[in-house]
């Protein structure tokens, strides 16, 4: 896992676990966990995660992750169970360890990814139908990144 990905996962966990209202509070929490970051880096991380500040009824604001963020993080917990992600012009195929496909397909469905129309899972293979006119190759690359798996013909995912 890259340092950037690890930091973003920690930021997401902190935002789900605590009421954090400022980037300074978040920087302090990261530093307490041994992670150094600049305000500019943290700002980019928050934007990448889709975090936004929302007003609280009792006053003040807190950072909040968009709906589905926890489910997308759930996909990351399934890393290591996916062997490969491949695609053709209209379909993405995910190859998994035996018995893992149903759980991974369910996690993809629960993640609420707007690029995914739906999934069908067997024992070790998942068919993923892209939504709309999205090219299957782009979706394959995105799923491979979320699941930490290589895209067929491209080598290991970063």
Description:
By secondary structure, the protein is an alpha+beta fold. The protein has two domains: 3-66, Orthogonal Bundle (Arc Repressor Mutant, subunit A), CATH 1.10.10.10; 70-147, Gyrase A, domain 2. 42% of the residues lie in helices and 20% in strands. The protein has helices at residues 3-17, 23-32, 39-49, 69-76, 101-111, 136-147; strands at residues 52-55, 61-64, 82-87, 92-96, 116-121, 125-130. β5 (116-121) and β6 (125-130) form a beta hairpin. α4 (69-76) runs antiparallel to α5 (101-111). One of its GO terms (biological process) is L-arginine biosynthetic process. It comes from Anaeromyxobacter sp. (strain Fw109-5). Pfam families: Arg_repressor, Arg_repressor_C. It is found in: Cytoplasm. GO terms for molecular function: arginine binding; DNA binding; DNA-binding transcription factor activity.
Q: Uncertain runs with pLDDT below 50, 5 residues or more?
A: none
Note the gap between the termini: 8 Å
Q: CATH class of the largest domain, please?
A: Alpha Beta
Order of helices and strands: HHHEEHEEHEEH
Rounded to the nearest angstrom, the radius of gyration is 17 Å
Provide the number of structural domains. Answer: 2
Largest sheet: 4 strands, antiparallel
Q: What structural category arises from helix and sheet content?
A: alpha+beta
Amount of helix:
40-55%
Write out the strand line-up for the largest beta sheet, numbering strands in chain order.
3-4-6-5
Level-2 CATH architecture of the largest domain: 2-Layer Sandwich
Total E-strand runs:
6
What percent of residues are in strands? Answer: 15-25%
Instruction: Let me know the average pLDDT.
Output: 84
CATH fold topology of the largest domain = Gyrase A, domain 2
Q: Shape, please?
A: elongated
Please work out how many helical segments DSSP would assign.
6
């Amino acid at each position: 896992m890259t340092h950037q990905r690890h930091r973003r996962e920690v930021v997401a966990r902190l935002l789900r676990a605590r009421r954090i209202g400022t980037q300074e509070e978040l920087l302090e929490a990261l530093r307490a966990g041994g992670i150094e970051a600049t305000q500019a880096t943290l700002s980019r991380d928050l934007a990448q995660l889709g975090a936004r500040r929302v007003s609280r009824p009792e006053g003040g604001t807190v950072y909040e992750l968009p709906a589905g963020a926890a489910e997308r993080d759930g996909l990351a917990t399934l890393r290591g169970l996916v062997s490969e992600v491949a695609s053709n012009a209209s379909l993405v195929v995910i190859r998994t360890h035996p018995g893992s496909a149903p759980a991974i397909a369910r996690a993809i469905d629960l993640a609420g990814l707007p690029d995914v129309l739906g999934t069908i899972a067997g024992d070790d293979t998942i068919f993923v139908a892209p939504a709309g006119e999205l090219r299957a190759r782009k979706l394959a690359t995105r799923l491979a990144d979320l699941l930490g798996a290589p895209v067929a013909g491209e080598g290991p995912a970063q």
